[in-house]
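Notebook entry, structure prediction.
Reason for the run: the old model in the group folder had no record of what sequence produced it. Starting over properly, with the input documented here first.
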Amino acid sequence: MSYKVKLNIFEGPLDLLLFLIKKEKIDIYDIPISLVTDQYLEYMELMKMLDLDIAGEFLVMAATLIHIKSKMLLPQEELEGEEELEEDPREELVRRLLEYKKYKDAAERLQEMRARNTEVFLRRGAGDKEKVYTEDGVDYFEASLFDLITAFRKVLKDVPKEAFHKVIRNEFSVSDKIHDIYHVLAKTSKMYFSELFKNAKNKDEVIVIFMAILELMKMREIMTVQKGFFGEIEIIRNPELVKSS
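New structure, fully documented this time:
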């Protein structure tokens, strides 16, 4: 596919690690480095598959995780003769994560104060979760890029294996899928992310639909929201556009 979506990615490698730690309910002080490394590399592969720009810092972190994993796998007797600068190979990574999380939390608080003062809708930047609206007493938060990739990962795994080998050139286009999503949102105020993929014929169509969602997000036509952390993702029209219409 020659069509590439260039989406501004607010999140970096530390954001992805914090996302995985929270998703897997991991103790940040005792990170199972093998599990986290494998998942981190899988998410990077999905990002490459979607033609998302991956900054060099993602690759540096991947190398760091692999290095830590290899040190953790070494027999203890091989480490006895080495001058150990760190008691635990994960110690520096944990320190960086805790420091970054502290700044993220501070940025979140500042953004909430700004939103209250200006009384306008603000797109989430470095903060953790931005509340978009409340409906029937339930708060809806904007889904992060990694939330979307997690949902995409699940959809991709549900595609029948035989469908992965069906290649029909130019059968699907991002512009057509954008039109389809517009058509659905013209009839309903929101829809579940998973519903868009129910009739997907193969892996290529799944990828094109997801790229159409990213393009609409880039155009600020839609937003993806969740009821709390890791809830099912729903797609809505951008509240800013709804207010101005």
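Summary: The two ends are 35 Å apart (CA to CA).
The old model has been moved to the deprecated folder.
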